[in-house]
Hints:
There is one protein chain. This protein is mainly alpha-helical. Helix 3 (39-66) packs antiparallel against helix 9 and helix 5 (108-119) packs antiparallel against helix 9 (188-213). The chain has helices at residues 8-24, 27-34, 39-66, 70-98, 108-119, 125-149, 157-164, 166-184, 188-213.
Amino acid sequence: MTMTDYKWSDEAWEAARPVYEAITRLPFVVELAAGTLPMEKFIFYLSQDAIYLKTYCRMLASIASRADDREITETFLTFADDCVAVENAMHADYLSRYGNSATEGPSPSCLLYTSILASQVSAPVEVQAASILPCFWVYYKVGMAIAASATKPNPYQAWIDTYSYPGFDESTRRAIEMCDRLAAKASPELRRRMAEVFVLATKMEWMFWESAYNLEKWKI
Length: 220
């Protein structure tokens, strides 16, 4: 690979790789693949994820409104309209059958993650776009890894299918492409900030799954 082939996303993923690898070792992920994850923990996770997605949808729309590249704008509007709708349908199916545990609102980890994302509206749009990328990329990588090793039948097959189906693959590739497109015109300092927030958001993905496994509550 020549230097001209090297993209911002290559650097960002290498920086976040240790966090991703730690995610694949989380009890939540391991037990979900085995089909042994307690349903209580999964429903807690989905309930918190439903809260998270409200902010996530707004951030996708915000990026679309701030981008000065028409293709980026149209891409992020599509993400806001279509990609999250698929997740919401899966959430609704599980939560209608097993109930919703988010009666007390966001957990500490959920609130921290959504606050980090929301704070990026005052950052350059390049940084804001990088902050939402782990929700595509990490979920796709985890979904594919689980799909390859999951026990069948699996009570979480609908979740596995959501994050390993070809359409989500294409959306992930498109999101990476759009971030690379923004990074290509950015200064070295701005690309550094993009990588930093990408790693931070990947760490928040780790915290989100870990907090769900522990049924995280407010201590006061």
